[in-house]
């Protein structure tokens, strides 16, 4: 077959299915070639195959294009463009690789690749939208996975389910020249049991790479985000799961959890002045209620720490949250953006442990405030009695009940509590 084309009258639908061990060979492939065409190519079943290695492969060139590699089928192509041109939010390209044994080998994979070099305008924006979905143990191999590399592009990659693998030499999200003002979206999602592997490096220029209990493996992961001028444009590494790489946050955001969770990094972590670490706190349990980064290597800190309270949580005095654990830690955050607390309490970032970063809740202890709620009242009398008979008392209450500071809450503190009640 010299070429595979699907085009025609307004939204004319052309489809081809290769099954029962059949083989399709092409030198040039357009699936959804023109804006009036909707094309679909399905390769399905063990032994069924498609080979197209001599020229570019287009899935959604200007029209809608869909490639399905299913149920153990295989495909080998040249560099493939999933979503090349189209009418924004209307036309695009989709590639689905699904099922154990289903395999796609491509020299390069471009997901969302607009060939324009200017910012378009008007009701029908000339852009590109592409999606790659790999699931249920399927595998995809190539030299490059590039997501929304060009201006006015939208690229989405979903890698899900146990045993699913995407393995390439390099992964690139967003444009290397990221100073443009065009809207562009790059999203890569790695689900439970799935793996994205880069034999060289992962570079997030803008967009989001999110783990949902999946695995990301590479020598280095760099979160760029420098010089972004598009409104709301960011470079983000987020989620919970396993990263086997050294992570360098140059100018983006590292945000563990969905919304709270633990990001495990088998490697080193560094954050320079332009980077931000975002931590959500919604309780005392690491992973389920507050974010943490666990490292096997070292952490070199700088940039911004941004802490947010979630789920209506209001911490008590002397609560603590270990947000970073590492083999060793060097430096400190240049900026600490911490939420305000009531009752004279505040957050304090503790760097004293050479292997941990811990956030403590501190504040001026109000004399007689036995239950640490910022007020002295009858509830403190009840708590004081509980301290004396040692029933269901935590360290905050024990310390606060030692009003005279002699190291032991006892009868000597009773008069001081009475005085505090009348004074307040």
Strand and helix layout:
Blueprint (H helix, E strand, L loop, with lengths): L2 E2 L7 E7 L4 E3 L2 E4 L5 E8 L4 E4 L4 E3 L4 E7 L3 E4 L2 E3 L10 E6 L4 E4 L2 E3 L16 E8 L3 E9 L5 E7 L5 E9 L11 E6 L4 E4 L2 E4 L2 E17 L11 E15 L3 E4 L5 E4 L3 E3 L4 E6 L10 E4 L2 E4 L2 E6 L10 E6 L2 E4 L3 E3 L7 E6 L5 E8 L14 H12 L5 H7 L12 H10 L1
Parallel strand pairs: 1-4, 2-5, 3-6, 4-7, 5-8, 6-9, 7-10, 8-11, 9-12, 10-13, 11-14, 12-15, 13-15, 14-16, 15-17, 16-18, 17-19, 17-20, 18-21, 19-21, 20-21, 21-22, 22-23, 22-24, 22-25, 23-26, 24-27, 25-28, 26-29, 27-30, 28-31, 29-32
Antiparallel strand pairs: 30-34, 33-34
Low-pLDDT stretches: none
- Roughly how much helix do the residues carry, as a percent range? under 10%
What's the number of extended β-strand segments? 34
Q: Quote the distance from N terminus to C terminus.
A: 90 Å
* Largest sheet features: 34 strands, mixed
- The fraction of residues assigned to DSSP E strands is over 45%
Q: What is the radius of gyration?
A: 28 Å
Global geometry: elongated
Count of helical regions = 3
Structural class: mainly beta
Average pLDDT taken over every residue: 88
Give structural notes:
This protein is mainly beta. The protein has 3 helices and 34 strands. The protein has helices at 378-389, 395-401, 414-423, and strands at residues 3-4, 12-18, 23-25, 28-31, 37-44, 49-52, 57-59, 64-70, 74-77, 80-82, 93-98, 103-106, 109-111, 128-135, 139-147, 153-159, 165-173, 185-190, 195-198, 201-204, 207-223, 235-249, 253-256, 262-265, 269-271, 276-281, 292-295, 298-301, 304-309, 320-325, 328-331, 335-337, 345-350, 356-363. It has a 34-stranded mixed sheet that branches. The longest helix is centred in the C-terminal third of the chain and has 12 residues, at 378-389. The chain is elongated and about 90 Å long. The N and C termini lie far apart (90 Å). The relative contact order is 0.06. The mean pLDDT is 88.
């Amino acid at each position: 077959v010299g070429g595979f084309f699907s085009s025609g009258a307004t939204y004319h639908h052309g489809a081809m299915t290769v099954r029962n061990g059949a083989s399709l060979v092409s030198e040039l492939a357009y699936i959804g070639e023109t804006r009036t065409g909707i094309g679909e190519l399905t390769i399905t079943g063990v032994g069924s195959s498609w080979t197209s290695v001599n020229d570019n492969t287009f899935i959604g060139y200007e029209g809608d294009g869909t490639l399905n590699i299913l149920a153990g089928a295989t495909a080998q192509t040249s560099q493939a463009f999933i979503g090349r041109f189209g009418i924004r939010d209307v036309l695009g390209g989709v590639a689905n690789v699904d099922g154990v044994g289903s395999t796609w080998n491509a020299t390069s994979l471009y997901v969302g690749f607009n060939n324009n070099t200017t910012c378009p305008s008007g009701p029908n924006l000339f852009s590109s939208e592409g999606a790659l979905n790999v699931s249920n143990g399927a595998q995809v191999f190539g030299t490059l996975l590039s997501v929304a590399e060009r201006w006015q592009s939208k690229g989405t990659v979903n890698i899900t389910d146990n045993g699913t693998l995407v393995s390439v030499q390099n992964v690139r999200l967003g444009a290397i020249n990221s100073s443009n003002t065009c809207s562009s979206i790059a999203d890569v999602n790695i689900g439970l049991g799935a793996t994205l592997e880069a034999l060289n490096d992962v570079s997030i220029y803008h967009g989001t790479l999110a783990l949902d209990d999946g695995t990301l493996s590479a020598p280095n992961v760099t979160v760029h985000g420098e010089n972004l001028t598009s409104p709301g444009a960011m470079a983000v590494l987020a989620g919970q799961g396993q990263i086997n790489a050294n992570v360098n946050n140059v100018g983006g955001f590292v945000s563990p959890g969905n919304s709270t969770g633990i990001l495990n990094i088998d490697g080193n972590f560094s954050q320079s002045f332009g980077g931000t670490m975002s931590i959500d706190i919604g309780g005392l349990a690491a992973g389920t209620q507050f974010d943490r980064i666990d490292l096997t290597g070292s952490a070199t800190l700088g940039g911004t720490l941004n802490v947010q309270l979630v789920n209506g949580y209001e911490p008590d005095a002397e609560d603590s949250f270990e947000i970073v654990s590492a083999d060793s830690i060097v430096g400190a955050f240049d900026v600490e953006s911490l939420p305000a607390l009531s009752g004279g309490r505040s957050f304090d970032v503790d760097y004293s442990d050479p292997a941990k970063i811990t956030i403590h809740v501190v504040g001026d202890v109000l004399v007689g405030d036995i239950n640490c709620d910022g007020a002295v009242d009858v509830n403190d009398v009840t708590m004081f009695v509980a301290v004396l008979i040692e029933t269901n008392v935590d360290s905050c209450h024990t310390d606060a009940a030692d009003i005279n500071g002699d190291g032991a809450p006892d009868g000597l503190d009773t008069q001081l509590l009475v005085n505090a009640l009348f004074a307040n």
